[in-house]
Specification:
globular, 8 helices, six-stranded mixed sheet
Length: 306
């Protein structure tokens, strides 16, 4: 292993926590490696609101990737779902940590979950995918925009006349905020949790995955990351990203995709919302775990033919 290297990450509490997970995984393999973390401010961290019509591709990743390519950091640590489906050819995703829970979660001021929210209740989300999924299952709901890191979003729920917000379960899990499966206490406010079924709320591509990006020609760093790479998770991520690349979809596109591997077989499901129809186009494919690229192409063809 190399003697020292620098991780690049965002400054949010979740991003720093994820970088710490990477450092801990490396030290489990070789405790002698010196790991430094460099905080990089991204466009998504800017206090000014982002133009919603400009798209959100690379909003939380572009500056970190630039620092990587400039040699300022050795490993860029990303939430994989924030990465554009096509990145700079000078960089590659060399490794991933084991995937966390992929589901979305409803954080509500009321018991009973999504089905029990009153007619016309207000739910906040920053995701166009989740907006379409909510409108599909509960067209009566009022959906409002939500930005900020996880603690900020919880505070906004507490201080606004909203009924619930939707987050990724992985974020709450990694921050240690969901002490019990059904409830959450934050800033002395009690919230109620419901894990949303992935059959309806199919997650974003890469959701729950911490991706480690390196320079494509940095063979020593790749060798250092190989022992901590979760191979099946990486195969799933590559398949999901290939589907998004073929669809030319980014964070501003209402699409969900999820690949999973069991006993050498990959299952892959896609969900795309188009036009005025509330119901999505959906399909599922299955094949060998190494066939992610072919399965992604087949999945897209099936959805386009529906």
């Amino acid at each position: 292993m190399v003697g020292k290297f620098i991780l690049g990450t965002r400054g949010s509490e979740l991003a720093r926590t994820q970088a710490r997970f990477v450092e801990e995984a490396i030290h489990q393999v070789d405790a002698s490696v010196a790991v430094e973390t460099k905080i990089i401010v991204t466009r998504g961290d800017d206090a000014k609101p982002v133009d919603s019509h400009a798209g959100r591709k690379g909003l939380f990743t572009a500056e970190i990737e630039r620092a990587l390519l400039a040699g300022e950091v050795d490993v860029a640590v990303h939430s994989a779902k924030d990465l554009p489906s096509e990145t700079n050819p000078g960089a590659q995703i060399a490794a991933v940590l084991p995937r966390a829970l992929v589901n979305d979660i409803l954080v509500s001021k009321h018991t009973g979950g999504l089905a029990s929210l009153l007619h016309g209740a207000t739910v906040a989300t920053g995701s166009v995918r989740r907006t379409h999924q909510l409108q599909w299952k509960r067209p009566d709901l009022r959906i409002v925009d939500l930005r900020g890191n996880v603690p900020t979003r919880l505070r906004k729920l507490a201080h606004n006349q909203w009924d619930a917000i939707v987050l990724a379960s992985a974020g709450l899990q990694r921050l240690g905020l969901s002490a019990t499966p059904n409830e959450l206490s934050f800033d002395d406010v009690r919230f109620f949790l419901e894990i949303l079924p992935r059959e309806t709320f199919l997650p974003a591509g890469g959701q729950g995955i911490i991706a480690l990006q390196i320079r494509a020609d940095d063979h020593s760093t790749k060798a250092m990351l190989d022992p901590i790479n979760d191979r099946e998770t990486l195969l799933c991520l590559e398949a999901e990203r290939e589907f998004l690349r073929r669809l030319q979809a980014d964070c501003n596109f209402p699409v969900g995709v999820l690949a999973s591997i069991n006993k050498g077989r990959m299952k892959m499901r896609g969900q795309v919302f188009e036009g005025e129809s509330r119901a999505p186009q959906e399909a599922e494919v299955e094949g060998a775990s190494e066939e992610g690229e072919r399965l992604a192409a087949k999945l897209l063809r099936m959805i386009e033919q529906n």
